[in-house]
Amino acid sequence: MDKNFQEEQFTGFTKFTPPLCKQRYQFIKDLVEKYKPKKVADLGCADCTLLWMLKFCSCIEVLAGLDICASVMKEKMHRLSPLPVDYLQPPERSLTVILHHGSVAHKDPCMLGFDLVTCIELIEHLEESELKKFPEVVFGFMAPSLVAISTPNSEFNPLLPGVTLFRHPDHKFEWNQVQFQSWALEIARQYGYSVEFTGVGHPPTGMENVGFCTQIGVFVRKYPQTGESAQSERPTEGVYKTVFRAVYPSLKDEKYLQNAVVSEVIFTAQIIKRHLLDRLMSEHEEYNDDTTERKSKFQPLMNCFSEDLGKLVVEKSMEPFVKGKVVYIPLRTIFSFPKVNQLCGTFEKLCKLIASKVTLSSDGSAMMFNIEHENKEN
Asked: What is the three-class DSSP state of 48?
Protein backbone atom coordinates (compact mmCIF):
# COMPACT_ATOMS: atom_id res chain seq x y z
CA MET A 1 0.00 0.00 0.00
CA ASP A 2 1.31 3.48 -0.86
CA LYS A 3 3.17 5.30 1.90
CA ASN A 4 0.78 8.27 1.84
CA PHE A 5 -2.37 6.15 1.81
CA GLN A 6 -3.61 4.26 4.83
CA GLU A 7 -6.82 2.26 5.11
CA GLU A 8 -8.11 1.08 8.48
CA GLN A 9 -10.36 -1.79 7.50
CA PHE A 10 -12.10 -2.16 10.81
CA THR A 11 -13.30 1.42 11.02
CA GLY A 12 -13.75 1.98 7.30
CA PHE A 13 -11.75 5.21 7.72
CA THR A 14 -9.49 6.33 4.88
CA LYS A 15 -6.81 8.94 5.44
CA PHE A 16 -3.67 10.29 3.82
CA THR A 17 -0.34 10.89 5.47
CA PRO A 18 0.52 13.74 5.30
CA PRO A 19 -3.05 15.09 5.01
CA LEU A 20 -4.15 15.74 1.44
CA CYS A 21 -4.29 19.52 1.92
CA LYS A 22 -0.65 19.55 3.04
CA GLN A 23 0.35 17.44 0.06
CA ARG A 24 -1.30 19.96 -2.28
CA TYR A 25 0.52 22.85 -0.64
CA GLN A 26 3.81 20.99 -0.72
CA PHE A 27 3.31 20.33 -4.43
CA ILE A 28 3.04 24.09 -5.03
CA LYS A 29 6.02 24.79 -2.82
CA ASP A 30 8.08 22.28 -4.82
CA LEU A 31 6.89 23.96 -8.02
CA VAL A 32 8.11 27.30 -6.69
CA GLU A 33 11.49 25.82 -5.79
CA LYS A 34 11.78 24.46 -9.34
CA TYR A 35 10.72 27.52 -11.35
CA LYS A 36 11.75 30.33 -8.96
CA PRO A 37 8.87 32.75 -9.70
CA LYS A 38 9.19 36.26 -8.27
CA LYS A 39 5.48 37.08 -8.31
CA VAL A 40 2.89 34.52 -7.23
CA ALA A 41 -0.91 34.85 -7.01
CA ASP A 42 -3.15 32.34 -5.24
CA LEU A 43 -6.74 32.47 -6.48
CA GLY A 44 -9.25 31.21 -3.95
CA CYS A 45 -6.69 31.69 -1.15
CA ALA A 46 -9.29 31.12 1.63
CA ASP A 47 -7.49 31.13 5.01
CA CYS A 48 -4.14 32.11 3.43
CA THR A 49 -2.33 28.91 4.48
CA LEU A 50 -0.60 28.48 1.13
CA LEU A 51 0.44 32.14 1.07
CA TRP A 52 1.86 31.78 4.57
CA MET A 53 3.95 28.81 3.43
CA LEU A 54 5.17 30.58 0.31
CA LYS A 55 6.29 33.74 2.10
CA PHE A 56 9.32 31.77 3.31
CA CYS A 57 10.44 31.03 -0.28
CA SER A 58 13.39 33.34 -0.87
CA CYS A 59 12.75 33.77 -4.61
CA ILE A 60 9.30 35.34 -4.14
CA GLU A 61 9.06 39.13 -3.97
CA VAL A 62 5.29 39.59 -4.41
CA LEU A 63 2.53 37.37 -3.01
CA ALA A 64 -1.11 38.10 -3.81
CA GLY A 65 -4.23 36.32 -2.64
CA LEU A 66 -7.76 36.59 -4.01
CA ASP A 67 -10.96 35.21 -2.53
CA ILE A 68 -14.68 35.83 -2.85
CA CYS A 69 -15.09 35.55 0.94
CA ALA A 70 -13.39 38.41 2.75
CA SER A 71 -14.28 37.14 6.23
CA VAL A 72 -12.37 33.87 5.69
CA MET A 73 -9.25 35.74 4.62
CA LYS A 74 -9.46 38.17 7.55
CA GLU A 75 -9.58 35.38 10.12
CA LYS A 76 -5.99 34.30 9.45
CA MET A 77 -4.43 37.12 7.45
CA HIS A 78 -2.50 38.34 10.52
CA ARG A 79 -0.12 35.41 9.88
CA LEU A 80 1.09 37.22 6.78
CA SER A 81 2.34 40.24 8.75
CA PRO A 82 6.07 40.71 9.41
CA LEU A 83 7.37 39.41 12.74
CA PRO A 84 9.76 41.29 15.07
CA VAL A 85 12.64 39.12 13.83
CA ASP A 86 11.99 40.35 10.29
CA TYR A 87 12.87 43.87 11.47
CA LEU A 88 15.86 42.74 13.54
CA GLN A 89 17.39 40.73 10.69
CA PRO A 90 15.98 41.99 7.37
CA PRO A 91 16.72 39.75 4.38
CA GLU A 92 18.19 41.03 1.13
CA ARG A 93 15.04 40.31 -0.89
CA SER A 94 11.96 42.52 -0.74
CA LEU A 95 8.55 40.98 -0.06
CA THR A 96 5.08 42.47 -0.43
CA VAL A 97 1.97 40.50 0.50
CA ILE A 98 -1.46 41.68 -0.68
CA LEU A 99 -4.94 40.22 -0.25
CA HIS A 100 -7.84 41.17 -2.53
CA HIS A 101 -11.55 40.57 -2.14
CA GLY A 102 -13.19 39.70 -5.45
CA SER A 103 -14.22 37.08 -7.98
CA VAL A 104 -11.99 35.13 -10.35
CA ALA A 105 -14.63 35.84 -13.01
CA HIS A 106 -13.64 39.52 -13.04
CA LYS A 107 -10.55 41.17 -14.49
CA ASP A 108 -8.48 43.62 -12.47
CA PRO A 109 -5.16 45.22 -13.51
CA CYS A 110 -3.70 44.51 -10.07
CA MET A 111 -3.44 40.83 -11.05
CA LEU A 112 -1.23 41.43 -14.09
CA GLY A 113 2.46 40.58 -14.28
CA PHE A 114 2.51 37.41 -12.19
CA ASP A 115 4.88 34.55 -12.94
CA LEU A 116 2.83 31.83 -11.24
CA VAL A 117 -0.91 31.61 -10.56
CA THR A 118 -2.23 28.83 -8.34
CA CYS A 119 -5.84 27.64 -8.13
CA ILE A 120 -5.98 24.99 -5.42
CA GLU A 121 -9.39 23.28 -5.13
CA LEU A 122 -11.07 26.35 -6.62
CA ILE A 123 -12.78 25.58 -9.92
CA GLU A 124 -15.25 23.08 -8.43
CA HIS A 125 -16.69 25.92 -6.32
CA LEU A 126 -17.47 28.09 -9.35
CA GLU A 127 -20.93 28.54 -10.82
CA GLU A 128 -21.26 27.60 -14.49
CA SER A 129 -21.19 31.25 -15.58
CA GLU A 130 -18.02 31.88 -13.53
CA LEU A 131 -16.33 28.75 -14.86
CA LYS A 132 -16.92 29.95 -18.43
CA LYS A 133 -15.18 33.27 -17.69
CA PHE A 134 -12.36 31.72 -15.66
CA PRO A 135 -10.08 30.68 -18.58
CA GLU A 136 -10.19 34.11 -20.21
CA VAL A 137 -9.43 35.87 -16.91
CA VAL A 138 -6.52 33.60 -15.92
CA PHE A 139 -5.02 32.51 -19.24
CA GLY A 140 -6.11 35.32 -21.52
CA PHE A 141 -5.93 38.38 -19.27
CA MET A 142 -3.48 37.52 -16.48
CA ALA A 143 -1.44 35.24 -18.81
CA PRO A 144 1.22 34.15 -16.30
CA SER A 145 4.14 31.96 -17.30
CA LEU A 146 2.88 29.15 -15.10
CA VAL A 147 -0.56 28.06 -13.83
CA ALA A 148 -1.29 25.21 -11.41
CA ILE A 149 -4.89 24.02 -11.03
CA SER A 150 -6.01 21.26 -8.68
CA THR A 151 -9.48 19.73 -8.37
CA PRO A 152 -11.01 16.56 -6.90
CA ASN A 153 -10.93 13.38 -8.98
CA SER A 154 -14.46 11.96 -8.81
CA GLU A 155 -13.18 8.48 -9.66
CA PHE A 156 -11.55 8.35 -6.23
CA ASN A 157 -14.77 9.21 -4.36
CA PRO A 158 -15.93 5.57 -3.85
CA LEU A 159 -12.77 5.04 -1.79
CA LEU A 160 -13.69 7.91 0.55
CA PRO A 161 -16.17 6.86 3.29
CA GLY A 162 -19.26 9.04 3.55
CA VAL A 163 -18.92 10.60 0.10
CA THR A 164 -22.09 10.01 -1.88
CA LEU A 165 -22.12 12.73 -4.54
CA PHE A 166 -19.54 15.47 -3.89
CA ARG A 167 -16.83 15.85 -1.26
CA HIS A 168 -18.05 19.27 -0.11
CA PRO A 169 -21.57 20.74 -0.05
CA ASP A 170 -20.37 23.87 -1.88
CA HIS A 171 -18.97 21.92 -4.85
CA LYS A 172 -20.89 22.61 -8.04
CA PHE A 173 -19.31 19.65 -9.85
CA GLU A 174 -16.50 17.12 -9.56
CA TRP A 175 -14.79 15.82 -12.70
CA ASN A 176 -13.26 12.48 -13.52
CA GLN A 177 -9.83 12.34 -15.15
CA VAL A 178 -11.09 12.49 -18.73
CA GLN A 179 -13.34 15.48 -18.04
CA PHE A 180 -10.63 17.50 -16.31
CA GLN A 181 -7.99 16.69 -18.90
CA SER A 182 -10.31 17.50 -21.82
CA TRP A 183 -11.14 20.88 -20.25
CA ALA A 184 -7.48 21.64 -19.52
CA LEU A 185 -6.21 20.60 -22.96
CA GLU A 186 -8.75 22.83 -24.70
CA ILE A 187 -7.67 25.80 -22.57
CA ALA A 188 -4.01 25.07 -23.31
CA ARG A 189 -4.71 24.89 -27.03
CA GLN A 190 -6.76 28.09 -27.05
CA TYR A 191 -4.34 30.26 -25.05
CA GLY A 192 -0.94 28.91 -26.12
CA TYR A 193 0.03 26.76 -23.14
CA SER A 194 1.31 23.24 -22.70
CA VAL A 195 -0.14 21.20 -19.83
CA GLU A 196 1.06 18.22 -17.84
CA PHE A 197 -1.15 16.18 -15.54
CA THR A 198 -0.22 14.80 -12.16
CA GLY A 199 -1.71 14.81 -8.68
CA VAL A 200 -1.40 13.99 -4.99
CA GLY A 201 -3.03 11.28 -2.92
CA HIS A 202 -2.08 7.96 -4.47
CA PRO A 203 -4.70 5.19 -4.74
CA PRO A 204 -4.26 1.83 -3.02
CA THR A 205 -2.01 -0.73 -4.67
CA GLY A 206 -3.83 -2.50 -7.47
CA MET A 207 -6.21 0.41 -8.11
CA GLU A 208 -3.84 2.70 -9.99
CA ASN A 209 -6.40 3.22 -12.78
CA VAL A 210 -8.49 5.26 -10.32
CA GLY A 211 -5.86 7.99 -10.42
CA PHE A 212 -4.85 10.52 -7.80
CA CYS A 213 -7.35 11.67 -5.20
CA THR A 214 -6.53 15.26 -6.21
CA GLN A 215 -5.76 15.75 -9.89
CA ILE A 216 -3.50 18.60 -10.90
CA GLY A 217 -2.80 20.33 -14.19
CA VAL A 218 0.40 22.36 -14.58
CA PHE A 219 0.23 24.82 -17.48
CA VAL A 220 3.34 26.42 -18.98
CA ARG A 221 3.01 29.28 -21.45
CA LYS A 222 4.67 28.38 -24.75
CA TYR A 223 5.56 31.86 -25.98
CA PRO A 224 6.52 35.14 -24.26
CA GLN A 225 3.62 37.53 -23.89
CA THR A 226 3.84 40.35 -26.45
CA GLY A 227 3.29 43.97 -25.48
CA GLU A 228 0.25 44.16 -27.75
CA SER A 229 -1.47 41.14 -26.24
CA ALA A 230 -0.66 42.31 -22.74
CA GLN A 231 -2.43 45.61 -23.39
CA SER A 232 -5.49 44.16 -25.11
CA GLU A 233 -8.78 44.45 -23.27
CA ARG A 234 -7.04 45.78 -20.17
CA PRO A 235 -9.57 47.36 -17.79
CA THR A 236 -8.71 50.87 -16.72
CA GLU A 237 -10.27 50.56 -13.28
CA GLY A 238 -9.87 47.95 -10.57
CA VAL A 239 -12.82 45.93 -9.35
CA TYR A 240 -11.15 44.15 -6.42
CA LYS A 241 -11.02 45.55 -2.91
CA THR A 242 -7.67 45.33 -1.12
CA VAL A 243 -8.21 44.03 2.42
CA PHE A 244 -4.59 43.51 3.47
CA ARG A 245 -1.15 44.76 2.49
CA ALA A 246 2.19 44.13 4.17
CA VAL A 247 5.61 45.31 3.02
CA TYR A 248 8.41 43.40 4.70
CA PRO A 249 11.62 45.11 5.79
CA SER A 250 14.41 44.50 3.31
CA LEU A 251 18.03 45.45 2.83
CA LYS A 252 16.94 46.89 -0.51
CA ASP A 253 15.37 49.68 1.56
CA GLU A 254 18.25 51.99 2.52
CA LYS A 255 16.70 52.65 5.95
CA TYR A 256 16.96 49.00 6.92
CA LEU A 257 20.28 48.59 5.13
CA GLN A 258 21.73 51.48 7.13
CA ASN A 259 20.55 49.97 10.41
CA ALA A 260 22.07 46.62 9.48
CA VAL A 261 25.37 48.17 8.39
CA VAL A 262 25.72 50.37 11.48
CA SER A 263 25.00 47.41 13.77
CA GLU A 264 27.50 45.19 11.96
CA VAL A 265 30.15 47.94 11.88
CA ILE A 266 29.83 48.56 15.62
CA PHE A 267 29.91 44.82 16.34
CA THR A 268 33.01 44.36 14.16
CA ALA A 269 34.75 47.41 15.61
CA GLN A 270 34.13 46.16 19.15
CA ILE A 271 35.77 42.84 18.29
CA ILE A 272 38.78 44.61 16.78
CA LYS A 273 39.04 46.95 19.77
CA ARG A 274 38.84 44.10 22.27
CA HIS A 275 41.49 42.14 20.36
CA LEU A 276 43.78 45.18 20.24
CA LEU A 277 43.45 45.96 23.95
CA ASP A 278 43.99 42.33 24.91
CA ARG A 279 47.11 42.20 22.73
CA LEU A 280 48.49 45.42 24.21
CA MET A 281 47.85 44.17 27.71
CA SER A 282 49.60 40.89 26.91
CA GLU A 283 52.56 42.70 25.39
CA HIS A 284 52.77 44.97 28.40
CA GLU A 285 52.93 41.96 30.70
CA GLU A 286 55.54 40.27 28.51
CA TYR A 287 57.60 43.46 28.51
CA ASN A 288 57.62 43.61 32.25
CA ASP A 289 58.55 39.93 32.49
CA ASP A 290 61.37 39.91 29.99
CA THR A 291 62.27 42.99 27.95
CA THR A 292 64.96 41.20 25.99
CA GLU A 293 62.67 38.35 24.93
CA ARG A 294 60.02 40.82 23.82
CA LYS A 295 62.48 42.65 21.55
CA SER A 296 63.56 39.40 19.88
CA LYS A 297 59.92 38.56 19.13
CA PHE A 298 59.23 41.98 17.71
CA GLN A 299 62.22 42.10 15.37
CA PRO A 300 61.05 39.41 12.85
CA LEU A 301 57.76 41.21 12.49
CA MET A 302 59.50 44.47 11.59
CA ASN A 303 61.78 42.63 9.14
CA CYS A 304 58.71 41.24 7.42
CA PHE A 305 57.29 44.74 6.90
CA SER A 306 60.62 46.23 5.77
CA GLU A 307 60.72 43.90 2.77
CA ASP A 308 58.16 46.02 0.96
CA LEU A 309 57.84 49.67 1.88
CA GLY A 310 54.65 50.08 -0.12
CA LYS A 311 53.07 47.15 1.64
CA LEU A 312 54.13 48.61 4.97
CA VAL A 313 52.35 51.88 4.24
CA VAL A 314 49.15 50.16 3.15
CA GLU A 315 49.01 47.75 6.04
CA LYS A 316 50.01 50.40 8.58
CA SER A 317 47.09 52.55 7.43
CA MET A 318 44.77 49.67 8.27
CA GLU A 319 46.19 48.92 11.71
CA PRO A 320 44.06 49.94 14.70
CA PHE A 321 45.97 51.92 17.32
CA VAL A 322 45.60 53.64 20.68
CA LYS A 323 46.34 57.33 21.15
CA GLY A 324 45.92 58.62 24.65
CA LYS A 325 42.60 57.30 25.90
CA VAL A 326 41.12 56.72 22.45
CA VAL A 327 41.18 53.64 20.21
CA TYR A 328 41.23 54.36 16.46
CA ILE A 329 39.98 51.64 14.10
CA PRO A 330 40.43 52.44 10.40
CA LEU A 331 37.27 52.06 8.32
CA ARG A 332 39.32 50.19 5.72
CA THR A 333 39.98 47.51 8.32
CA ILE A 334 36.29 47.24 9.19
CA PHE A 335 35.37 47.13 5.49
CA SER A 336 37.74 44.20 4.97
CA PHE A 337 35.49 41.98 7.12
CA PRO A 338 33.29 39.78 4.86
CA LYS A 339 29.90 40.60 6.41
CA VAL A 340 30.49 44.38 6.24
CA ASN A 341 31.87 44.09 2.73
CA GLN A 342 28.87 42.05 1.61
CA LEU A 343 26.35 44.49 3.07
CA CYS A 344 27.96 47.63 1.65
CA GLY A 345 29.49 46.53 -1.62
CA THR A 346 31.81 49.52 -1.84
CA PHE A 347 33.92 51.46 0.67
CA GLU A 348 32.21 54.66 -0.40
CA LYS A 349 28.81 53.15 0.45
CA LEU A 350 30.10 52.19 3.88
CA CYS A 351 31.24 55.74 4.58
CA LYS A 352 27.91 57.15 3.45
CA LEU A 353 25.79 54.77 5.53
CA ILE A 354 27.64 55.24 8.82
CA ALA A 355 28.11 59.02 8.53
CA SER A 356 26.68 60.71 11.64
CA LYS A 357 25.79 57.29 13.09
CA VAL A 358 29.16 56.51 14.71
CA THR A 359 32.00 58.59 16.16
CA LEU A 360 34.69 59.17 13.53
CA SER A 361 38.13 60.78 13.55
CA SER A 362 38.49 64.33 12.25
CA ASP A 363 39.42 63.12 8.78
CA GLY A 364 36.63 60.52 8.77
CA SER A 365 39.01 57.60 8.18
CA ALA A 366 38.61 55.76 11.48
CA MET A 367 36.09 54.95 14.21
CA MET A 368 36.91 56.25 17.67
CA PHE A 369 36.30 54.60 21.05
CA ASN A 370 37.04 56.31 24.34
CA ILE A 371 38.58 53.68 26.65
CA GLU A 372 39.00 55.77 29.77
CA HIS A 373 36.25 53.86 31.60
CA GLU A 374 37.75 50.51 30.46
CA ASN A 375 41.11 51.47 31.92
CA LYS A 376 39.43 52.29 35.23
CA GLU A 377 37.69 48.90 35.22
CA ASN A 378 40.97 47.11 34.51
From this structure: coil
